[in-house]
Specification:
Layout: H1 2-62, H2 71-94, H3 98-116, H4 120-147
Helix pairs in contact: 1-2, 1-3, 1-4, 2-3, 3-4
């Protein structure tokens, strides 16, 4: 009789342990997926903002007589900046990882600097810095996703 009770409790304990491990693995998988999705949205938004700024800069340099760039291009830059800020906020809600946050802040600083000054020198020197910062974010996100 005692052996039967021990066997039953052992089976129950094993089942509970398995359920706990499965739930933990599912939470980790969900967390990784959420980080990957938010990180992808941020990287896409960084790219879209840079593209909008370059398009505006190209318009301004190819039409130097025009002091007023097309309204739709300005709207595109502002919309891209808003999307970038929203993507950052979503990612920051998912992770407190200091490496990821630091890389994102640096990337946003470098990327937003492109739009702050439409001078040739800023675009020329700022572009590589923005791209390097983009890749640093990518590396930090990959590491955070791997360890999540």
């Amino acid at each position: 009789m005692l052996a039967s009770l021990i066997a039953v409790f052992g089976t129950l304990a094993g089942s509970l342990g398995t359920i706990h491990l499965q739930q933990r693995a599912a939470r980790r998988a969900t967390r990784r997926h959420d980080l990957q999705t938010a990180g992808g949205q941020l990287l896409t938004a960084l790219t879209a903002y840079r593209a909008a700024v370059y398009a505006l800069w190209t318009t301004n340099t190819t039409n130097p007589d025009t002091n007023n760039p097309p309204t739709e291009q300005i709207t595109t830059v502002r919309t891209a900046r808003a999307a970038l800020t929203a993507a950052r906020d979503t990612l920051f809600l998912l992770t407190a990882d200091a490496t990821v946050r630091g890389a994102v802040h640096a990337a946003l600083d470098a990327t937003f600097a492109l739009g702050d000054d439409q001078e040739q020198e800023q675009i020329t020197t700022g572009r590589p810095a923005a791209l390097d910062a983009h890749h640093t974010v990518l590396d930090a996100l990959a590491s955070a996703i791997e360890t999540a």
